[in-house]
Design a protein that fits this description.
The protein has 5 helices and no strands. By secondary structure, it is mostly helical. Helix 1 packs across helix 4 and helix 3 runs antiparallel to helix 4. The longest helix has 21 residues.
């Protein structure tokens, strides 16, 4: 099997987003606006979680592919360069070191229940 990367997916999404909405689901999703793309990403995330909870490995693979596709489509719609996401991941990895080792100090926005990878309460409503 030929390797496939998120870079490949980014290129496909960028190309398909240029089509007309009647020619491409990606173009239709992007044209629908950021809220529509975000809602669809949320739906796919829930489906992936459900597959994981049900121990349905085959469906988890399928839903994971949907989740990644919709995340990349949302990045495209929001004009987020995936390189900035990778840079943030690199920064966190460098800052935190080994993932199993807790950070020596937490930032002021973090709480004991916050996963150390996030570096704070970024996922909680302000």
């Amino acid at each position: 099997m030929t390797a496939f990367s998120l870079s490949d997916l980014e290129a496909i999404v960028a190309k398909r987003a240029k089509a007309t909405p009647d020619q491409s689901w990606t173009a239709k999703l992007v044209a629908g606006g950021q809220n529509k793309a975000a809602k669809k990403l949320g739906e796919e995330a829930i489906e992936a979680v459900m597959a994981a909870v049900q121990n349905d490995r085959e469906n988890l693979v399928y839903e994971s592919a949907d989740l990644l596709y919709h995340l990349v489509a949302l990045w495209h719609r929001a004009e987020i360069d995936p390189g900035s996401v990778w840079a943030e991941m690199r920064r966190r990895a460098d800052e935190l070191g080994i993932a199993e080792k807790p950070p020596k100090s937490r930032d002021r926005n973090s709480s004991p229940s916050t996963p150390e990878w996030t570096g704070g309460n970024h996922d909680q409503a302000k």
